[in-house]
Design a protein that fits this description.
0% strand, mainly alpha
């Protein structure tokens, strides 16, 4: 017994025949010429379809879905939940109760209180009149007669069985012989020619058709992949061309022209103008405040000239006809004399 492990050999690829090699290159060239325009049109339609779907159909669909959900689904759901469902439940319960009262309960009472008692009485009467006499007749009369007839039939069946077995054996031998002869004739007349036709005619033709179909399928797959590369290259070229014609000039204009102009406008015009406007606003507010203050003082002077100065208020608890005490000012300290160089008014320089 060989106990050493043998390396597993991979199955060798089957070599292509001369027919496959002969039709491969022409078929691939023709299929490539036919498939490249189709692949270009397909990729262009795919790009347009994706753009239309993501930029048009999907937003519109979402908007329509939201609108339909807001205007139709939500009101219908509320109506179904709060109106139709309670009404339907009430109508269903009333209908069920009415149907029970009209059709179910009368028949149940009739069955329970009329049919069942009558049926029980008829069952008891039928048992007494028919079942008990029939059972006695079966046990006392029919059973002995049946046993005698069964013994007679058993003897007759034994004789018939012996005769039938002999005749069946002869007929079976004859049929086996006839079947053997017919099987041989059928094999040589039908099976052998059919096998030869399949092995030497149909199988080679089928293998040739399979090789041609396989090569055509492989050519289509190869052409589709090559057309995909061509379509990718064309798309990249068009994208780069559009970038060179539109994107790069627009970016250069933005960086080299619009950005410096914007900075210049911001630093030279916008900021000084805003600063001047803020200064003018500040000056205008100050002037308006000064004018308001002057107007208030002028109104106060006119009021004093026309109506006199306002009366002094007498504090509560003061004696009439006596001068009211003058309040001491709290802003300046009450000093007995003028301040000299030798005097000290702070706590740190007092003696």
């Amino acid at each position: 017994m060989d106990l050493e492990k043998r390396p597993l050999t991979a199955p060798q690829p089957q070599a292509d025949g001369c027919l496959a090699v002969a039709i491969r290159i022409p078929v691939r060239i023709v299929v490539l010429v036919l498939v490249v325009p189709v692949r270009l049109v397909w990729d262009a339609l795919a790009v347009c379809g994706r753009f239309l779907y993501f930029r048009g159909l999907r937003p519109v669909g979402r908007a329509l879905a939201w609108l339909g959900r807001t205007l139709i689904v939500t009101p219908l759901a509320w109506l179904m939940e709060h109106v139709i469902t309670p009404v339907a439940l009430g109508v269903a319960q009333a209908t069920v109760w009415l149907l029970k009262a009209v059709f179910v309960w009368p028949w149940v009472g009739l069955w329970r209180y009329v049919v069942v008692p009558v049926g029980k009485a008829l069952g008891w009467l039928g048992r007494v009149l028919f079942v008990i006499p029939a059972m006695w007749l079966y046990a006392s009369v029919l059973t002995p007669i049946g046993h005698g007839l069964a013994w007679l039939a058993k003897g007759l069946w034994a004789g018939i069985d012996w005769s039938v077995r002999g005749i069946g054996a002869g007929v079976g031998w004859l049929l086996r012989g006839i079947g053997t002869v017919l099987g041989a004739l059928g094999r040589w007349i039908f099976v052998v020619p059919a096998v030869a036709l399949w092995r030497w005619v149909l199988a080679p033709i089928g293998r040739g058709i399979a090789v041609v179909a396989r090569e055509i399928g492989a050519a289509f797959g190869h052409a589709w992949r090559v057309a995909g590369y061509v379509s990718l290259a064309v798309g990249r070229f068009l994208g780069r061309l559009l970038r060179w014609l539109f994107v790069d000039p627009a970016r250069w204009v933005y960086r080299a022209v619009l950005t410096p102009v914007g900075y210049a406008v911001r630093d030279g015009i916008w900021r000084p103008t805003a600063k001047a406007v803020r200064g003018a606003g500040r000056a205008t507010r100050q002037a308006v405040a000064a004018a308001r203050r002057s107007m208030r003082e002028a109104r106060a002077d006119v009021r004093r000239m026309l109506f006199g100065a306002p009366k002094e208020r007498v504090p509560v608890g003061a004696v009439p006809m006596e001068p009211a005490p003058v309040p001491v000012a709290r802003r300046e300290p009450d000093t007995p004399g003028t301040r000299t160089l030798g005097s000290s008014t702070t706590a740190l320089t007092k003696d």
